[in-house]
From TrEMBL:
It comes from Streptomyces nigra. Keywords: Lipid metabolism, Membrane, Oxidoreductase, Transmembrane, Transmembrane helix. InterPro entries: Fatty_acid_hydroxylase (IPR006694), Sterol_desaturase/TMEM195 (IPR051689). This is Sterol desaturase family protein. It is found in: Endomembrane system.
Length: 277
């Protein structure tokens, strides 16, 4: 089964080109815009992620199908309430996945790819990880709820397509009720900020209500500085894909205590052992 998001790739590429041209004809000194090497890196990461994700999707389908087969009930795709449940359950699963990938370093080593650009435009949305395996457990409960696997995969694609449009500086704040309920470009600019006030905020996928409920919401205020707290300064796709795994392994290998090794692996990014007295 080919994910629906794959069929949207030509439209993504076209919209990237349109947005890039908009900076040529309608420049804005307050926006970072595009840079050729940065965009090429994002496109390379996106292409690589799709190549790797296709065979991995077979594993995902088998796992969902196995859990769906032992679910205590199986919900009908013909019921509107199944779709309502799926929408909210999938979005909550994405929130949990996204938050965990910012708070556990081994998971962050995969997700950091998406945050490695110092620019924020539609091509940034395509800068995706080459190690997608860590996401599987977060959506498995949906199959146990009795939601058919094909529906889960479809809603995941819908969420990813929606999130593509969040990666832009060309859209200012939207109507207040929309900003209150839905994830928007303004909210997602905050998420990509390296400013202290913006770190680990606005994890939502389609909805921003989870961040409001769980205390991780931050409105856009001061100008966003995009990228990492320590930028990697490279356009090499291999380094972009694996630099944090390399750094994590270095810290684990050089640690002298098992609890420090565990901290480097499973603590938040930037974790360091307390100095001994």
């Amino acid at each position: 089964m080919i994910p629906a998001v794959v069929y949207a790739i030509p439209a993504f590429v076209l919209l990237v080109a349109v947005e890039a041209l908009s900076y040529r004809f309608l420049p804005d000194d307050d926006e970072r815009g595009y840079e050729v090497r940065d965009t090429a890196t994002s496109m390379s990461m996106g292409a690589g992620s799709q190549v790797i994700a296709l065979p991995w999707k077979a594993v995902v389908i088998v796992a969902y199908a196995a859990l769906y087969s032992v679910a205590p009930w199986q919900l009908s795709p013909g019921s509107v309430w199944t779709w309502v449940l799926l929408f909210f359950a999938e979005d909550l699963a994405y929130y949990a996945f996204h938050r965990a990938h910012h708070r556990v370093r081994l998971l962050w080593a995969s997700h950091v790819v998406h945050h490695s650009s110092v620019r924020f435009n539609l091509s940034t949305a395509l800068r995706q990880s080459w190690t997608p395996m860590s996401g599987l457990p977060f959506w498995m409960p949906l199959a146990l709820l009795g939601i058919p696997p094909w529906m889960i995969l479809l809603q995941q694609s819908i969420s990813l397509i929606y999130q593509f449009f969040l990666h832009t500086e060309r859209v200012d704040r939207l109507w207040r009720p929309i900003e209150f309920v839905f994830n928007t470009p303004s909210h997602h600019r905050v998420h990509h900020g390296s400013n202290n006030v913006y770190l680990d905020r606005n994890y939502g996928g389609i909805l921003i209500i989870w961040d409001r409920l769980f205390g991780t919401f931050q409105p856009e205020g001061e100008r966003v500085v995009y990228g990492l707290t320590k930028n990697i300064d490279t356009y090499n796709p291999l380094r972009v894909a694996f630099h944090e795994y390399t750094a994590t392994w270095h810290d684990i290998r050089t640690a002298t205590r098992w609890r420090d090794r565990a901290g480097y692996a499973f603590g938040p990014p930037g974790w360091a052992p307390q100095p001994r007295h």
